[in-house]
Write the structure tokens for this entry.
Amino acid sequence: MEMIDAHAHITNDCYNDVDEVLERAKESGVTKVVCSAFNLLSSQNAFSLAKKYPNVFANVGFHPENVGEIEKKSLAEIEKMAKDEKVVAIGEIGLDYHSEGFDKEKQKEFFVKQIEIANALKKPIVVHSREAMGDTIEILKKHPPICPSLMHCYSGSLESAKILMNLGFSFSIGGVVTFKNACSLPEVVENIPLDRLLLETDCPFMTPVPYRGQRNEPKNVVYVADKIARLKGISIEEVASVTTENAKRLFKI
Ligand code: NI
């Protein structure tokens, strides 16, 4: 059984054992890991990891909570790295209205600017949207990505999912779907066609049951695959195989 972790933060400080993390992933059938970034430093680190390990691929970009860090040269550096073939998407980018003190206009401005970088390079975007689905959809309608793209850690409604599917989006599902307080997510996942779903850990966060509370790592996508299989009443092998093909097609890996 082969799986791909479509969204992991293995550049995070808590991983001083990346070799072992990737070895355990491989032993569990996770053949490829897409390492996502959230600012310039994490983009550079994801880039370095992708250059070091054949089965690691990078996303580069500024998370909406970090757009305040963007300096004049930052986006040029993102763009420069993004030209490399091991950088498979611009991400994670988007809108996040959860934390206090965010600058809505600045988030929107740099969301659009980073979509434009992706479009110029003909690469997909990986979108983070938290408590901002209305504005996220509005921007994506006005500035659609030209490549089929990804909503990461999706937690929106089925109605929003339908609009996003029409804009070419797939959805990566993480450990939240295994939580008891997952709200409507299991039902939404049940109703999204399997050919639009990818597996992710978003590690070190969002550790799926039965390891909730511990540090997450790519090998744990199997618990997400298992939950999706049970929701859809299909085999875990089918979930693994279809989501792996979806990830390979979307990221061209
Ligand atoms: Ni993330």
